[in-house]
Specification:
homooctamer; alpha/beta; Rossmann fold; 2 domains; 5-stranded parallel β-sheet
């Protein structure tokens, strides 16, 4: 309910078109929606990105996933559920036959049209980082963006990255996905002008401590203009990149 | 430009089909721009932000700081050195009489004109977080931005933040600076549409472990669109925010 | 054996009503029972809460669980075993046919009547936190309390909590159950006057480090009046809340 | 603004007593006032505890402490600032001549009358834990409670605690302050029926890791009814205990 | 090869009974065996404890375990293999039909006679600690000692320990096995005069961090005369206790 | 108060020799005295070791140290205070003129006669470990033992240890003091039959993490018969060794 | 090569002073050799070691492993894939029938001839460390070296290592593989003159924290000339040793 | 005593030249001298490197440093003491007037001639890493090597490193010194064929955790041929590099 609607409502009451009592019922939920301007924002977000809400699949039961998916689908053409394992998908696919499952990123989704706003590049250090990178990339795409993927350009073979330098430098925002020592974020951060979102992955063993080594490295990046999300959080990096890219696209 | 292209180009020069000078122009961008493009970028960065390089004062001797400051000053109107303690400033101020020292943010700088690009808001949870927030804010300002400051709106008194909700929501990018449990980043992240940069601070004691608690909390934010920089890294947050804000301003 | 009983016993000896030898036998066990006043307390506890002892199911064999359950059942109408997985329950249910199993909280119990002392509210940040919350809530109920449940009101959508603010504020004690960054504890702690018990959960991934992020955040809460129990310790939070609520109810 | 007020307002509009436009202005701020109900609560808290706000002295400048102290003093007879070191006090005492400084707890305060609500006991393991214990105890007293102190009863000499068992068991709530291995919290928790608030201290060396050992021990207490606050957080324990004790005293 | 053997060897050479060359071959390995007096000690150890070497089963293949067991058995009546899971035992038992398997301690062994040197007491906090305690106790027994077991006397029910105080205090050495907060080690350490060996166990969850909480607590014990072994290291505690007890028994 | 005493007391009551009321008063403290058997033990400990209590100087004020020292001195010829820094000693020495200060071990003490029970050896890896070793050695001596010191025999020069192998192997108990990687404990543990007490020290830098590296190494010793005390805890190791050595000496 | 040099070179070509082909050769190395010199190096590496690239099998799908293996095989006689589990091998062996699988080291490889450069010794503390040691040893062999293996010579039985001292001391480089407390690296480091590469393994339990204890111990080695690779990183140690050994062999 | 000597001794006994008894006395000390072959090695090491022993100055008293320095000086022209702070040097310089102090590396030394074996390059990421780099470089030089220094070529400005690529690639061994995220080690490791020794430094703040971030990053390097020493351990890196370089120089 927006400002104008409230003004209209009060005018209707003033003009006797609706009773004070009925007006009260209409108003009752207003303050929460209004104060919590973000409730309104939720709809704005929906209009722009098509995703008022995303289902975090991990830790939810099959029934919960299906139910929420169907409820969201009833309101939006675009629905997205992250962290849906192949096992879960196998069990629920018959109940969500219209949904597309991307096994690499483990995202289950429906979408009306492809993302069209260019400007986001997703870069990975190794092959093992691709699932997280795809979670980020598909998140960006489902939120309306077009994504350039540059994979397997880790710092142990620097020429691979330098080969793609032009492509990298023409981005509005870059998502760097790397496990092990996570050095790629600093190297990319030093080569570009745009914001860099670093995603540490749990790829590695021993003293990688499930991604801690990459996380700490990225937080201590000597390159400025680098910010970090949680280990393996492709979705979060995608959201952040999409928000930034859409600022640029305004 | 591939091997064959270069060979062809050289053959054309040898055969007089194109002049050495024109050939040079074609070649010029090949190795340099492609490989070390960032060297060129450094100048572009300088043109736009006025800061081709920032002096990280911590761990440098007085002489090193003064010398680098003077060298940069010779090339740029705007020079910035971060992490200059009051003690260091007292010792070097006579040698850099034209520089301005901001004791709260511990930044020593010169600037030609005030930042003018609006869109960045810096928010703090408590009074103790202000020095880090000021490092972020002044960094943004020296890089050409105008900064809105909203301080001391931590989640233990939520009404303080909600009072300023409109101001917060009208930002292109928000820097949230918080120590202790760092909850403010998630709360702000849930209230806005724009990218949020979270800066954990070392404010706290005991199980804050010098900012680790806030850092982990921010990395695990349940709100999407939040990315994190190092503990107490106001400068890094400022750079990231400035990069994002200038995307929006293009 | 209480003070008066000892005095009476000694008087009986003085008056020759019982011999010194018989008196000694009666006294023999006195010091332990008395010094260990808590042995007496155990019975008092039983009288009030109906739970002199709770079976911690994790790490016990099927036989141990069944045997202790039956032994306690012989003395009390109310028996409670926590951390009984569905698999364990499936194997032992035929031997404890009178017991009720709650699969969400993983508690196996018998009770005579429903809890009736109002004043405890259990709040969760997300859906994934519900099993821990239910362990807390059912513990409270089995100890005689009535519980108000307010689930899925995490800080990334603050309006959900504010919607229920009145309900939250009318509690004697609130249990806040949250994983990830655990910010809900601070936000609730800042909105209420009553004691808040924070339960970090292991919900999350990466830098949540199995609940460490939420634990540290809750320990560093900027809101006063918040105390913390172990990660996923719904039972402990329930006990603490029940003790507090019954103080209020005296 | 309550329900009835809104209904009245709408009726006034319906009856033409106030215009729709003026009614809108009145409504506009309603949600904020309502949502921020806790702003009202702040005053309620003040009325009951005499402490609407406490100054956390650590990390504040002398001027900040003095200024906030004077501002609070203008509104309340009782003012309290924690973590005021002897050095800080020496510098500011002339500007706050009416304030009392307790060097053991490092609290600077004014109070009108002594706390009178009995029920809180503060227990310490060793002599080194007393400053934290006194921070807790004086916080309780300034919030209106009477405090029983039982110090230096650590588990390496268990008879010292058992000597005071009766005193301990007659409490509404017990604060256990212990460093090193923090075992006292579990021992006390097993001997009493009431809620126990455990405060780990940084007393120790080596593998105590500045209180981490005691903190982890207390979080893992085998006794139920124990909740934990941050390392050295006597103030937080005092607040929690006071909230609990005043529930009991209602 | 002992001193006398060398003297004899040299005499044989002097008397021409063996050639200098053959004597050299015999001597060649002498220095190592001799310098490494422990090689001799190994035999002494065998004579006293019957265990010159113990097989650490974890991480060994079935074949390795069987082969080493048989090799040791050929030389000694007593053989002992620790950390043999029930699954491993099921697979190898036909090849070691003479060996006894204790499923609680997961020790596979043969022994000629029961341990007879009294003086060791093994104490546990809870039921879950018993497997580790049994590893310690059976190790002691196989090394010739008689063991007193006092289980399930954790500090949350202090009367259980005090009931057994006399038994505890009459030991030469006490092994305290406890998980969770590990407080029992300090409490026992404060009640006895003899050396206490503390064994933290991985019993617990959440902030027990797989036994770290108990380990740190035990290392920080406020009671003197307590030393600690690795988490779940019942075998190590048993060895240490046996060495101490046999000193007492000399 | 023993069994016979109680029986006698009851008989006296039966015979009218003392009144029931007076008998009750005598009995009242019985359980505590009995349960607290260790209170009696304290005196036994005093008789044998001369040290019923040791003052832990760290964290105590000058006045507290002096006062407790004088109080203990009034009852015992032998008094010992550990962790007394040179600065503290300089301030208090005039008030304790009869006490001896050992600046290496930082122990302040009085003793009647030298320790005479042989069997304890203290070994260090490096020169930097000597202060902790001396704390252990002097503790042992003050408790009646004679100590053999073998310093600076770290594993990087193994021949130094092997030179002293005979001396090492003739001990009842060995204290190994080592920082950095703490490997000496395992090497010694593999060379001897007797119990080994390992003391990690904070000697080192970087990834020694203030002794954590040595602590972990010692806890994971591949040699059996090794138990560990807290980092830098020479006193604790000395107590443990003394308890063990006196068992051997019985 | 600077701008002027390039201009001159092109002018020379234009003037026919040097041919286009020779000019290309001069230019060829300018960008690539200067910048990506390593691309050329890659071929040199291939020529010498036969391994321009190694497949890290962990985290790759069966198809990825097979495809890369075949692609590399087409170019080189020697191909190597590490971290291939027995399960993976069983599934892919029919598609790579020419490849040899070593189940201990989990390496899948083809090779033309045996390694022939002596100088590398691989030492392990225990039996459990052998798989990591074999990964190192086979890596060295596939890279052209001959390897001496000395296994199961941990410090708890020092005579085993001393027995093999001569063999150890005749190496160019030694790889020490050890879990638990990792002390063997320091002991070997103190006995030899050549570089020592320490490989911590995850062998151990409890406070070994999956190899952390050994890692920290090795990093803090009191012996100079020791450097460390990641936990369980036999491959990395093998590469490093091979690089060093081939320096010696030049 | 070498093999031949023993053979001769036995032959003398066989030939009756010396008695079996006298022969035994000669033999008795043999094993120690032999086993400790490394004692001989110490002299070999001295002959080649001029440094049989290095004084680790940290934690030693002034007197200890001077005394050991003089003792070593009596035997060798080259003496080296590391970690000598400027304060220590100021106090002892009059007693060691012949020694040279390098304030950057904090090394105090004497040397006869400059190092002459080329092949070692020391690279740093930043200016703050130079003191550690100089400790490494001077150690190498004192051990006979010539060192190439390439400083301030961190990955945030990759062109600086690439500018020096030829110089870097012509090394036998490279020491990479870097703090913060330590990425330079991986980048250099990917660009060269020779062994790389990575030295993490404590340069950084916040989540660098005093060098832990760089340490973990370097241990997880995606480049093969990289091994790591302790944080800030320039000396250790120098020793390792010298050992490797001298292999190459044989």
């Amino acid at each position: 309910m927006e400002e104008n609607q409230i003004k209209k409502l009060l005018a209707s009451i003033a003009q006797g078109e609706i009773s004070a009592e009925d007006g009260y019922k209409k108003l009752r939920n207003y303050p929460f929606e209004s104060v919590e301007g973000f409730a309104v924002l939720d709809h704005q977000r929906e209009m722009r990105t098509g995703f008022p809400e995303v289902i975090f699949g991990q830790g939810k039961t099959d029934d919960q996933i299906v139910e929420i998916f169907l409820r969201l689908k009833a309101k939006n053409p675009n629905v997205m559920a992250s962290r849906i394992s192949a096992e879960v998908y196998a069990r629920i696919k018959d109940r969500l036959p219209f949904a597309v499952y991307d096994s690499m990123s483990r995202i289950l989704y429906t979408k009306e049209k492809d993302g069209s706003i260019p400007g986001i590049t997703v870069v990975t250090a190794g092959t093992g980082d691709i699932p997280v990178a795809e979670e980020a990339a598909l998140t960006c795409e489902l939120m309306g963006n077009k994504v350039q993927r540059i994979y397997d350009v880790g710092v142990s073979g620097l020429h691979r990255l330098i080969h793609r330098l032009d492509d990298v430098q023409q981005s509005n925002v870059i998502i760097v996905v790397a496990g092990m020592e996570g050095a790629l974020a600093s190297v990319v951060g030093g080569l570009v002008q745009c914001p860099v979102i670093a995603v540490p992955t749990s790829i590695g063993y021993g003293a990688s401590f499930h991604g801690l080594a990459a996380l700490l490295a990225m937080l201590n990046s000597c390159a400025s203009g680098v910010a970090v999300v949680n280990i393996d959080n492709g979705f979060g990096a995608g959201c952040m990149a999409s928000r930034i890219n859409q600022l640029a696209g305004r």
